[in-house]
Amino acid sequence: MSSQGILLMVPVLPSGARIAPFIAEIDQSHKYSNFGPLNRRFQDELAAFLETYLCRAARVHVSTVASGTVALELALRARARGERNKVIIPSYTFVATAHAAVNAGLEPHFVDIDEHSLALTPEIAEAAIREGVEAAAVVPVSPFGAPVDVTAWERFEDRTTVPVVLDLAAAATSIRHVGTLPICLSLHSTKMLSLGEGGAVISADADCIDRITRMTSFGFEPHEPVSTLRGGNYRVSEYAAAVGLASIQDLERKSAALAERARQYRLQLQGLKVSLQRGFGVNWLATTMNVFLPPARVEHTLDLFDRHAIQWRRWYGLGCHTHPVFADCSRSDLANTERDANRVIGVPFHELLTAEDIALVCSALREALA
Ligand SMILES: *Cc1c(COP(=O)(O)O)cnc(C)c1O
């Protein structure tokens, strides 16, 4: 336990010593940005890592970008239907999803989530379209890194002709299928795989990824500085790519350290009136862990956490629609969001957490829910 109590999150990126060999390559190459060799190698290694997971053999294409939020903005700009301006978004997401929609020139329309998976489903999005929402795009979100049924969203796009952009920002290690839909990842320091700050768009659609890569660099043509697409500067530097290459090397160790802590939690939470996201720590992992508390016990449990100096957080707050800047956006019924956002609580989860820390969190939960 630290002097501030049990910390909620401690990002651990590769040490300077692990990054140093890549920095030495930059010293040699004098390439600091603009699609340098380390950036290309990082894209190739990320693609190879994802290809090992895929059920159907497909070539994965990757474009690194400045952040996960930028990944969403560019994918929306590349794909949204131009004559419309609404984007269907689950209110229950990190607020970046809504900011990205606005920055892409669109207006969020907030919809509900499934109460078990905490995710937007194709059925919920189709109900919003039936209500009359003229959607330029829909952005399903992976809740806290849980796997998303990408194939179901491919069928949704075929049925409705509404383009889908996937916000799998925290789900880099739980992607099971990459098709033609763009998948947006965050490579922020709080995520499984990191450039410090960064993001990526991935897809099996080489043309889409090529367009997005060009948008990150003023929409230039591949071999001459002539702008044929609207874009900007959303590239990543070679220094960031150096961190990313070391982060890929470290991924197996990091996953094992987090899996062990998830295992200890699961064991000690058995028999308590709390549940975890389905499959967490068994089929998939992320850098946050969330518990579903019984609604009537939420306040009491959070009081006890505070008294024991156990940090907690509602990672997605109470939903995007509760942020003042998005309060006047249109929305459908949000009954599940309003109930679950209050009771889904992020608890301490990181690789520096000790067995004693986990025992203290679980004993506080036992006391609160007795
Ligand atoms: C982290 C995250 C983002 C934003 O990524 P940045 O790299 O911080 O811009 C967007 N959506 C979700 C669901 C996230 O978890």
What does this structure look like?
- The chain has 370 residues and is of the alpha/beta class.
- 39% of the residues lie in helices and 13% in strands.
- It contains eleven helices and 13 strands.
- The strands form four sheets. Strands 1-7-6-5 form a four-stranded mixed beta sheet, with helices on both faces.
- α1 (16-29) packs antiparallel against α8 (238-269), α2 (37-51) runs parallel beside α8 and α3 (68-79) crosses α4 (96-103).
- The model has no long low-confidence stretch (mean pLDDT 96).
- Bound molecules: pyridoxal-5'-phosphate (PLP).
Mean pLDDT: 96
Tell me the number of strands: 13
Characterize the overall form: globular
Strand content: 5-15%
Low-confidence stretches: none
Q: What is the compact description of this entry?
A:
This protein is an alpha/beta fold and 370 residues long. It is built from 11 helices and 13 strands.
List keywords for this structure.
single chain; 370 residues; alpha/beta; four-stranded mixed sheet; four-stranded parallel sheet; 11 helices; 13 strands; 39% helix; 13% strand; globular; binds pyridoxal-5'-phosphate
Please write out the topology.
Layout: H1 16-29, H2 37-51, E1 61-65, H3 68-79, E2 86-90, H4 96-103, E3 107-111, H5 122-130, E4 135-138, H6 150-160, E5 166-167, E6 183-186, E7 199-203, H7 206-215, E8 220-221, E9 224-227, H8 238-269, E10 275-276, E11 289-292, H9 298-307, E12 330-331, H10 335-343, E13 344-347, H11 355-369
Parallel strand pairs: 2-3, 2-4, 3-12, 5-6
Antiparallel strand pairs: 1-7, 6-7, 8-9, 10-11, 11-13
